[in-house]
Design a protein that fits this description.
The protein is mostly helical. The chain is built from 14 helices and no strands.
Amino acid sequence: MTPSILPRTLRDAASAAVVLAFMFPLFWWGLTSVKPASAIFDKDQVVWFGFTPMLDNYAVVLLGAGPDFFSSNQSIIDTLVVALGATALTLTAALPAAYVLSLRDFSAKRRFFLWIVFQRMAPPVAIILPLFFLYHEVGLRDTRTGVILAHATVNLPFAILLLKSFFDDVPRDVGEAAMIDGATPSQLFTRIYVPLVRGGIAATAVLCFVFSWTEFFMALFLTDTIRLLPVQLALVVTQTWGFTAALSTASIIPGFIFILLVQKHLVRGLTMGLTKG
């Protein structure tokens, strides 16, 4: 083995080891989800593949073929609605704000930018108590609309800052040429700049969706009868590993599909457009 090949081989081996280390828990969780209880709780040996796969755990948590406590199909639907709604609301507000911060000059621009940075630094726990009492007064507590607004509030500063970096990356000559050709300010935004940063929009959407899909703290304090998926998982995990593994594995699928659909734009977005499609 030549000296030039050795570093590359070591790098590839290290990369493979890291991937395996991260993927093994997911593999084991998925394997546990199709095991019978006798294989999961075998005290004499670790059961790998010496069992007959079964889907009973999925039938209980997804189809309600068991106690109502473990039925989680409504939790998945509610969480999907909240995650998609929060993502759409965040992008609707963040896109024009990021565009203005990047391409427009106004007197309070620096103060506005610093205010957004400060909001990004504030953790969700800092606003949960005011939101709790506010939602109680206006009737938004224990509603999907209330959780959507809360998630969008937390995601908005992050989305503005991330999208601003993509707008900053667009050459100013593009906008100037469009204005010379007669483009209006609204056309400049919707037809020129937004298509040019679609990779950044996709990346931002995925990150906002994942945050909303996995967020536990607000879902716990702002809901009672509505059990979003992280809360439902926390309740199921105290009961049996088979149901927990099935629900955990099923909960990964929507996020995985979302990422798969926009993977090209996600890669381009996270690399600031350096990867060409």
